[in-house]
Amino acid sequence: MCAMVKCVVALVLALGAVLSSLACTPTQEGAVIGGATGATAGAILDHHHRTRGAAVGGVAGGIIGGVIGHAYEINRFCPACGRRYHYCKARCPYDGSALQEVR
């Protein structure tokens, strides 16, 4: 693998790691990480058409990563009003109650 491809791979994976830390839910994190990994793999494997390979790999990786991340989704609910929220929320924005995990 040439030095330029190694640099691009490292940059894409680092960008995926940064973006996944900004994502709120496991579904979003999985989609970002899967998309970045798929785009990198696609660009490397389709060495004649790197752009096409990156696009196909990114889309496929994003979809698969999102599906896998969704399997790890932990929902929470408000015991006062019954509304449901993603795991990144700690308090209900409507009444301020502490959220509880759905079991």
Shape: elongated
Overall number of strands: 3
For the terminal residues, how far apart are their CA atoms? 47 Å
Helix content: 55-70%
The overall pLDDT average reads 79
Strand content: 5-15%
Global structural class:
mainly alpha
Furnish the topology, listing elements before pairings.
Elements: H1 3-22, H2 26-45, H3 50-71, E1 75-77, E2 84-86, E3 100-101
Antiparallel strand pairs: 1-2, 1-3
Helix pairs in contact: 1-2, 2-3
Which descriptors would you attach to this protein?
60% helix; single chain; 3 helices; 103 residues
What would your notes on this structure say?
This protein has 103 residues and is mainly alpha-helical. It folds into 2 domains: 3-72, no CATH class; 75-103, no CATH class. It contains 3 helices and 3 strands, in the order αααβββ. It has a 3-stranded antiparallel beta sheet with strand order 2-1-3, with no helix packed on it. Strand 1 and strand 2 form a beta hairpin. The longest helix is centred in the middle third of the chain and has 22 residues, at 50-71. The radius of gyration is 18 Å and the shape is elongated. The mean pLDDT is 79.
